[in-house]
Write a structure and sequence with these properties.
The chain has helices spanning about 1-15, 25-35, 45-50, 60-70, 90-105, 120-125, 155-170, 180-190, 210-215, 230-250; strands spanning about 20, 40, 80, 110, 130-135, 175-180, 195-200, 205-210. The protein has ten helices and eight strands. The structure holds 3-methyl-2-oxobutanoic acid.
C-alpha cells in the first residue's frame, strides 16, 4: 500500500494529474480501474442509490457490503472507503471501526470528513497504520441546509488553509477539497506537499474526483461542477423499450437465444 501512496505523492511532484472516481459495485469499479488512480466507495451512495436526503443515514454495514463488491472489481487503483457519520467520534471508536472496514473490505485506506478538530483521531489512526485521506470544504455529513461553495469570506479562507495544513501535519496522505473557491484551492494546493483532490474546486487541484453516476448521467445532479459525459438514463430507457417491444411482438427470444 505504501508504494501506491508514494506513487500518488510523486504524481503531485511530477505535476501529473490524479484521476479519481467513486464506485459502489464491482461492475462499475472494473471499468473505472483501467483509467483511475483512486476509487472511492463514497457515502454519496446514500443519496445516489438509496435516495436518502442525507449521508448521515448511511451506516457501516452498508459501506462494508458495497466495498466488498467494489474490491472484486479493482486490480490496480488505490481503494478508499468513506467512514460514515458517527463512526469516528473518538479515537477508540474510530480505530475499531476503521480496522473492521480495512479487514473486511481489504481497502487501502479510509476517508474522514472534517478539519483540524479531527487531528487527534487521525494521528491515532495513522499510528495504528491506517492510511487516511482528509476531506474539507463542503462536508456533507455535517453541512446543514443548502450547499454553497466555501472560501468566500476571509474567515472561511483562514480556516480552510489552517485545516489543510493541520491535516497534512496529522499525516493524511491526500485531502479532498469539496466546492472550495478557485484561488483558495490553488493556494492550498501550493501550500501543502500532499495531493489535493478537487470536487467542484477548480483545475488547480492535483487531482479531480466526481461521482461516477453523475458523469454517466444516471442522476439528476444540478451541481455546477458536474460534467455529464453520457446520458446513460436515456440509453437504458431505449434498451428497455426495445426489450419490451421484442417480448411483445415475439421476436425475443428467437432460435439464437433458445436451447
Ligand atoms: O461520498 C462521496 O462520494 C465523496 C466524494 C464526492 C468526494 O465524498
Amino acid at each position: 500500500m505504501l508504494t501506491k501512496i508514494r506513487r500518488l505523492t510523486l504524481k503531485k511532484k511530477n505535476k501529473s494529474k490524479i484521476v479519481c472516481l467513486t464506485a459502489y459495485s464491482k461492475n462499475i469499479a472494473e471499468e473505472i480501474d483501467q483509467h483511475a488512480d483512486l476509487i472511492l466507495v463514497g457515502d454519496s451512495l446514500g443519496s445516489v442509490l438509496y435516495n436518502y436526503n442525507t449521508t448521515r443515514k448511511v451506516n457501516l454495514k452498508m459501506m462494508i457490503e458495497h466495498s466488498k463488491s467494489v474490491r472484486k472489481g479493482i486490480k490496480k487503483s488505490i481503494m478508499i472507503v468513506d467512514m460514515p457519520f458517527d463512526t469516528y467520534k473518538n479515537k477508540s471508536q474510530a480505530l475499531k471501526n476503521c480496522k473492521k472496514v480495512l479487514k473486511e473490505t481489504k481497502c487501502d485506506g479510509i476517508k474522514l470528513e472534517g478539519g483540524r478538530e479531527l487531528n487527534n483521531i487521525i494521528k491515532y489512526l495513522i499510528n495504528h497504520k491506517i492510511p487516511v485521506i482528509g476531506h474539507i470544504g463542503i462536508t456533507p455529513q455535517t453541512t446543514r441546509g443548502k450547499y454553497r461553495y466555501k472560501g468566500k469570506t476571509a474567515f472561511e479562507k483562514k480556516k480552510l488553509l489552517k485545516d489543510s495544513k493541520s491535516l497534512e501535519e496529522a499525516g493524511v496522505f491526500a485531502i479532498v477539497l469539496e466546492c472550495i473557491e478557485r484561488k483558495l484551492s490553488q493556494e492550498i494546493t501550493k501550500t501543502i506537499k500532499i495531493p489535493t483532490i478537487g470536487i467542484g474546486s477548480s483545475k488547480y487541484c492535483d487531482g479531480q474526483i466526481l461521482v461516477t453516476d453523475d458523469i454517466l448521467g444516471l442522476t439528476n445532479s444540478k451541481m455546477k461542477f458536474v460534467k455529464k459525459y453520457i446520458n446513460l438514463k436515456k440509453n437504458i430507457r431505449n434498451a428497455v423499450k426495445k426489450f419490451q417491444s421484442d417480448v411483445k411482438n415475439g421476436s425475443y427470444p428467437s432460435i439464437k437465444y433458445s436451447y
